[in-house]
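Supplementary Methods S3. Input chains for the assembly prediction are listed below.
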Amino acid sequence: MARFDYFEPDHLDELFDLLARYGEDARVIAGGQSLLILIRQGLVRPGLLISLDKISSLRQISYKDNEIILGAMVTQSDVSAADRIREHLAVLSQAASKVGSVHVQNLGTVGGNLCHAEPNGDSAPALLSAGASIRASSSRGERAIPLEDFFRGPFENVLEPDEAVTYIHVPVPGSGASSVYLKHALRAVDRATVSVGLMMQMERGGRCQEIRIGLSGAAPTPIRAKKAEALLKGEKITEPLIEAAGMEVSRNCDPLSDAHGPAEYKRKMVGLFTQRAIRQLVGAYSAKQEV
Amino acid sequence: MIKKELQLRVNGGLFKLEVFPSTVLLDVLRDELGLTGTKRGCETGYCGCCTVLLGGKAIHSCSILAFRAKDHEILTIEGLEKDGKLHPLQKAFMDRGASQCGYCSPGMILSGKALLDSNPNPSEAEVRRALSGNLCRCTGYLPIIEAVLSVAQEGGRP
Amino acid sequence: MSNGAIVGQSLPLVDGVEKVTGRGVYGVDVRAAGMLFARILRSPCAHARILHIDASAAEKIPGVHAVVTCNDLPDRRVGLALKDEYVLARDKVRYIGEAVAAVAAVDLDTADEALKAIRVEYEELTPVFDAREALREDAPRIHEELAHYQQSSYITRFIQPIPDSNVASHIKLRKGDIAAGFRLADVVLEDTFYCPRIHHCYMEPHAVLAQYTPDKITVWSNGQRPFDIRTYMADLFGLPMSKVRVINTMIGGGFGGKITAKLEPIAVALSRKSQRPVKLVLTRQEEFQGFGGAHSAWVKIKSGATSDGKLTAREMEVTWDAGAYADLGVSVALLAGVVGASGPYRIPNLKLDSYLVYTNKVNPTALRGMGMQQVAWAVESQTDLLAEKLGMDPVEFRMRNALEEGDRSATGEILESVSVRECLKKVADAMQWGKRPKAANQGRAICVWHKFSAAATTSSAAIKINADGSVTLLTGSSEIGQGSKTVLSQIAAEELGVSLEEVSVISGDTDATPFDHGSFSSRVTHHTGNAVRFAALDAKSQLLNLAAEMMQPMEVTAEALELKGHRVFVRALPETGLPLAEVALAAQLRGKPVLGKGSFRGQGSHRLDPETGQSSEPAASEWIYIAQGAEIEVDPETGVIRVLKLVGAYDCGKAINPLAVRGQILGGVMMGVGLSLYEEMTYEDGQIVNPTFMDYLIPTAAEAPPIEVIVVENPHPLGPYGAKGVGEASIVLIPCAIGNAFYNATGVRIRELPLSPDRVLEGLGAKGQASSR
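Predicted structure tokens for the full assembly:
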């Protein structure tokens, strides 16, 4: 592996200062589960790595009244172990437990997973469905980036060279909301062939009040399925509507072919798993209503 | 690039080393500390032959910088025996044919230990998932799963 | 045959402690003082002339001690069978990834830097990547000198190249009258099937540590045929074999992929030039680029059967993609492509053609199953189609045509220890075949096959009885994780009346251990097991003769004595006798320390009549029979096949160690699951697209289905305790069993592997069965 230097700032100002000075030649390292492999394969050649590991505030999960804030160093294992996240944001909890292997989850961070910006990662669709936003910070200040605006292309995000993701802000869903993450992959440890993060707020009568659909494997970046959402929002969810939503998702996606599946297969699957996710939440909602 | 001083806590001992900052933990364990029980099998973080425990958690030592690992307790396969007595997982692997060529065994055993330490009574599905970051080409996995479950059932952990 | 105290017992492997503690020293772990680190420069071109290599800039880099090219090795072709390759490419490169030069430096970073500084000028030639295209008259010739290539004499070969073509070997078999056979048939089916290339994926990469001095070469290698490696290098470096020592380290898996000695000569050449020990370890990516896995194959098959379910004729054409070099493809093309190709069936009329075809990709080699899974994929798939056409139960159809004891094989061999029907019945019973209802989207199938073990290979062994009665066993075979050290120790311990703990094994050292052809072709238990047994009997005879002398004035002959439980005693008077240790010490004191030797040569020959494929000798040393059942469930919306259960019966003759036998079978089954559902080496313009474990998908613990193993013990008259082999058997039938079960579930026949979800969904869609809710 090509050599690089390694800095471990222990507070944010030091991090921003290093980034301001070395941004172009540096990479921020969180869990390293994606980055170190890229470096070993020679795809990325930073002169130095700046670690987030020693900045304790970035390791916290903060629970506020209206949002949950994940520090950039919060690991997938931290998320899947967090009872309160499982309770309010099942989609995020489930996605975290499906990332790669347990080994990868123990070191890999949600922030790092998002920054890696792969077309078929797990954290992104889950957080897209939760309406999350990124706090990008630098010595110049901070900005909030809605997650759906965070991805520029495959493995490319919109961060400036002197910026780092410090926190991920996730709105606490309303009390009637439910969510689910469905992942279709070849093996348990694989990236998603396709995956769907779905959050829905249902109301009496089976009407869909709010809906967000996050997709992986459907496009060069993770995306929101806004047209399908528009079909469902405000409507009573029926089986024909679910099928229509699935078809809308399939129609509007632009998947990449890779080792996990050809584009046409992904196109079909993304529609199918959107339908399955919606059916699952609607079914659970109906079951609750009957109680 | 120059080497920098690094202290690592491995298998209960404290080691002072001089290492390039870009060195991954796996290379330090094998090349600097001579702990060759931890293996390399790939470059992309999938095979799990390099598994060690960091603060009790199973990780791939090829995918963590050695400097990042300081201040944590590192356990390699060499640290599992106590006073010449094998850990129940090591014994179970031998007794149940869970080790054929043995190359994946250190990683598998440590992943099994990490699971049982945090979840003493795992389901078979949980065992399979905990081991899915460790590839094996010899055993077909079933004897390994059986070995881990047998230790769980016997409640045998030191 | 009943079990002895040790033979037949499920015992933990004798080298288990080294494995579970991490103390074992594998190829990747060995080191020598002052050793240099090597890297290989690999061709970026699939087919090109080498015009010029300039290593001068690389040699000048500080820390670089040697750069070698073909000019540092004799201008002599090498090859396991057909001598068609160079250690380092000379004149031409024939695949992307071919070794062109190598560097030894103080560390790997410096070696990598040196690689970048080596200038190679290529003149690109038109490549051909598809084996069928390579057969065309106008295809570029990959080996212009094919007609002049020599064959290695190390193991007897049967290679039939077609001059001025890309066919490294064409083997054929003609039996009966094929046209008449098809005329007799009421049902004739024709199909073409394809099986892709898969990789061995042993967890430990290739690793070599070489030390050259002018009068001795020493190599530590994790190769599985050390005596082969020695032959190669003695020839290349001009030393007698006695001055070339190859020592096995512990080996982290082989599966046939660690036979070809591509790396050892490179490391030795670097050591010679640098005058330092040199360590060469491949990266995982290099494993995929520099070693080609198993042969992909197109199998055309036409079979005919009468309405009462009797096969009358089978015609097959198998096209094997040999990659750039023939390597062990010659044995694949012969043994799987012809000798065993038509299956364990009585078929009076056969026309078989097997083509080993060069292409511009890295060459495959032996891989567990040795071509049988590729052929069985086609044959057993068609068998179910025939049964269906005839309106017969597929198990019944197989039973009706199964080979039986004393039948002649396709090449004319009179078969012994045949258990086709027994294996089939055992699996059918275990699955309650025909008796259980089937849920929607579920399917079941049972297939049957046979696996050869290579003919005419030799093993020898030596046994020392130490002065305290403990036993040291010397064997040239390699422990590759299959448990050979344990099984051989069990045999020695059984015959010598000692406990397993008292036996130690030295294996795979060409100086210290007697000759053995090595660990491949499921041969060690049968061949080396016999050699060890004979060596033990020889040592036993020495002990008993001496004991008879020592027991005087009691009048006993050696024949009346028994050796058991660490004692020598008169069989009829067990309370008499001497401790074994006493006899062993006495032997030493009297100037005749006990040293037993034994050897065994497997029967048969691979030489067939070039026109008819017939032979007066067996074409295999023994045959192993297999039946495999699969139960699957398919999700018609996603195309995902979930394997509910695999149950197989495997005839190993005699399970010397049932725990080890089960382990080998399970491993082979999972390799079969990988081939069936997940694995394929994919190429674009000769470049492998998925050379990592991220994109080449082998099953993990999460993907292992329930597997039931039925061990069948149908003794072979020539095996130790009747033992045959079992290491490869269980991979062979997994793809066709799963494929047939899928057909049973859906009526959709897919003729290519893997049965990936997208391929399955496409197949279902074509039949109008994919669910589109």
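The two ends of chain A are 59 Å apart (CA to CA). The longest helix of chain A spans residues 263-290.
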